[in-house]
């Protein structure tokens, strides 16, 4: 009877440590994700962008970032690298709709955001209707 009691106590301690560690790990992941978003969101807003997400904790989330009708300079594109930490755990898509980006600019953004999916859309009057980079290679 003593052995069963000891085993139950030991099992309760081990399970308690496991559950406590899991809750701590999820809390750290959530805090890290919130930090990444809070760093990226002001830049996205400053450039007139919009961001939406489909949360799927703890497996990762999907983020859609969209910039419409805005010309970008090379320096502004460089500032988009604050989005990169979001791509370490989550799926991130960045769409440039009717922006003045060239293929070289999009290649540059692909170097800054190697794990993000990039999409460029241009009106039917422009040359590029849709161009995407689904993986880390253009």
Describe the fold and architecture.
The protein has a domain at 40-133. A 5-stranded mixed beta sheet has the order 1-2-3-4-5, with helices on one face. The model has no long low-confidence stretch (mean pLDDT 84). The chain is rod-shaped. The protein contains 3 helices and 5 strands; from the N terminus they run αββαβαββ. Helices cover 44% and strands 20% of the residues. It has helices at residues 2-46, 74-79, 103-112, and strands at residues 50-54, 62-68, 91-97, 117-121, 130-133. The chain is an alpha/beta fold and 138 residues long.
Write the layout of secondary structure elements.
Blueprint: H1 2-46, E1 50-54, E2 62-68, H2 74-79, E3 91-97, H3 103-112, E4 117-121, E5 130-133
Which key terms come to mind for this protein?
five-stranded mixed β-sheet, 138 residues, alpha/beta, 3 helices, rod-shaped
Strand content: 15-25%
Derived from helix and strand composition plus strand pairing, the structural class reads alpha/beta
Main sheet characteristics: 5 strands, mixed
What is the 3D shape?
Answer: rod-shaped
Care to give the gist of this entry?
A 5-stranded mixed β-sheet has the order 1-2-3-4-5, with helices on one face.
């Amino acid at each position: 009877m003593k052995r069963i009691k000891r085993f139950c106590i030991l099992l309760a301690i081990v399970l308690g440590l496991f559950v406590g560690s899991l809750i701590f790990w999820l809390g750290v992941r959530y805090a890290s994700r919130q930090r990444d978003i809070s760093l990226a969101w002001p830049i996205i807003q400053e450039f007139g962008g919009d961001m939406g997400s489909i949360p799927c904790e703890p497996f990762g989330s999907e983020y859609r970032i969209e910039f419409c009708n805005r010309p970008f300079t090379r320096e502004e594109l460089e500032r988009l690298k604050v989005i990169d930490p979001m791509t370490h755990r989550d799926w991130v898509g960045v769409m440039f709709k009717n922006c003045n980006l060239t293929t070289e600019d999009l290649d540059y953004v692909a170097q800054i955001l190697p794990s993000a999916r990039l999409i460029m859309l241009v009106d039917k009057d422009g040359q590029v209707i849709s161009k995407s980079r689904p993986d880390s290679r253009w």
